[in-house]
Design goal:
The chain is α+β, with helices and mostly antiparallel strands and 321 residues long. It is built from ten helices and eight strands.
């Protein structure tokens, strides 16, 4: 009798262990447990830790509460300005209501993926190419709003949506490269023109200052010579401006003395242009040319204002008969 009781106790104990093993569940920290009893949702969601369910009667589903990173396959579409592009994105979402994520939608991951692809195509068709390339933040916010509205009914919250890459056709890439090159060339020309304008203003001011002080031009010329000579050139071309020559002429002591003498005497200095030309008349032979000689002397005297002394006539020897 005692042995039968012991055997019954041992069997009951074993059954209790088996039951406890079948009923025991462990929910991890990043999970939540949703229990269905006879297919009906139990109201309380099991929190992380150790929990018990009724074996065979209850079924518990664990839902991951971590943020899920889901890549959206590249979608090809035509923008509002008729440019064919290929865009891919990534969606970050998390489950906020485990019961709704299991009850309201069959597979919330697949549903979010399909909704992201559809919304991405819609955004491509409503946007221009420039918006896709430069105004992505605004497009990301639009995608997030389009996904968040239906996802809230599924117990899912969209945390963030990012457009990763925009692929363009090769012809469009070449066109954009030419456009960027032309724009940079335009800006370079504007900068060069502005530099020329500023340089011309500074040169005008420098020329006005040098006109007041001629010595400044000489100093500037010497600086230029020093700069050119520093290059170790074998040939040095040195231009002399007219202003420098005039400055040197005014600074010459002989010129000052001559100028002072002219001021004292009141008569201009005689130059080669004011001198009377010296005319040499060859001697004429015979009496037959005396008349023409006198006429020539008169003509020279009229032109030059200087009398010409006639050359002595050759002495004639008497002929012997």
């Amino acid at each position: 009798m005692i042995e039968e009781l012991l055997m019954a106790a041992a069997g009951a104990g074993a059954a209790a262990v088996v039951y406890a093993g079948a009923a025991a569940r462990v929910v991890k920290q990043y999970e939540r447990g949703v229990v269905f009893r006879f297919g009906k949702l139990r109201g309380r969601v099991r929190s992380p830790g150790f929990t018990m369910i009724v074996p065979v009667i209850d079924r518990m589903h664990k839902v991951n509460m971590q943020i899920v990173t889901m890549p959206v396959p590249a979608q090809e579409g035509i923008t509002r300005d008729n440019v064919t592009v290929r865009v891919d994105a990534v969606v970050y979402f998390e489950v906020v209501d485990p019961a709704d994520a299991l009850v309201r939608v069959e597979d919330y991951r697949f549903a979010v993926s399909q909704m992201a692809q559809t919304s991405l195509r819609s955004i491509i068709g409503k946007s221009d190419l420039d918006d896709l390339l430069s105004n992505r933040e605004k497009l990301n916010q639009g995608l997030e709003l389009m996904l968040d509205s239906p996802a809230m009914g599924w117990g899912v919250a969209i945390d963030r949506v990012e457009i990763k890459d925009v692929s363009l056709p090769e012809t469009m890439k070449r066109s954009m490269a030419r456009q960027a090159e032309a724009d940079r060339e335009r800006r370079a020309r504007v900068i060069n023109a502005d530099a020329e304008l500023q340089a011309s203003k500074k040169l005008s001011e420098a020329a006005a200052m040098m006109s007041d002080q001629p010595a400044a031009l000489q100093l500037r010329l010497l600086q230029t010579v020093v700069a050119v000579a520093a290059e170790k050139n074998s040939t040095l071309v040195l231009p002399f401006p007219v202003e420098l020559l005039r400055f040197l002429e005014r600074a010459t002591p002989d010129a000052k003395k001559e100028t002072g003498a002219e001021k004292e005497t009141g008569a201009p200095r005689e130059t080669a242009a004011h001198r009377a030309p010296e005319v040499e008349i060859p001697p004429l032979l015979g009496d037959a040319h005396l008349g023409s000689r006198a006429a020539a002397e008169d003509a020279i005297e009229d032109l030059t204002g200087t009398s010409v002394e006639p050359a002595p006539a050759p002495r004639r020897e008497p002929r012997e008969d």
